[in-house]
Amino acid sequence: MSSRRSRMQQATRDEIKATARDLMSTHGTAGISIRAIAREMGITAPALYHYYENMDALITDLLVDGFNASADALQAAFDQDGTSEGKVRAIFYAYRQWALAHPSQFELLYGNPIPGYEAPRDVTVPAASRTQVILSQAIGMLMMANNRPVAPVWARVPPTVAESLTRILNDGGYPTEFMQAAYLASLFWAQAHGIIMLELHGHLPSTLGDMDAAYAQFIDSVLVQLGT
Length: 228
Known about the structure:
Layout lengths: L2 H25 L6 H8 L3 H4 L6 H26 L3 H18 L1 H8 L10 H8 L1 H17 L12 H14 L6 H22 L4 H4 L2 H15 L3
């Protein structure tokens, strides 16, 4: 395939994905289909199969793009702030900011399942795991910089959890000394994720009102638990 033809094909694939994201922003994940995308683009549905063999292939591409876009925002936050405490704080802020700016994509990544679709783990997991790797690195740096113990409740990784984390760290080529940071990153990420999901669905704002202030205090609580 010539480079010009390859560029044209990639441009069309990008347009297909952009159209799918637009449909999701209006109709949710249930709003994307080959027929709906083709209609929006002004082409026939069979024409789309020249670029994606089926709907699952398109969804997989959207997932990988979304995971990478979210992780890129976190990586930028990590790179911009000079202190380890600042990196952790900036990453948590960036995670929420990206989710609020791209709610339909965030829902695709973590929310509504698509009936009949099963993500190919070998394709999606490397992109999906970037978020926790970045946060784990920042938390590990903060723990080393503080040179103080974390809150006692987090001082011990449960043995059964340690078994799973050891396997994951070994598979990723990370030292086992990274374990506590990875464990805490997973738990604190889960808390942040829960807050953001409840915010996106309107459950928390009606109760807490000022979500900016509430989320900022949540980040403060994380830093306290990490020994700052």
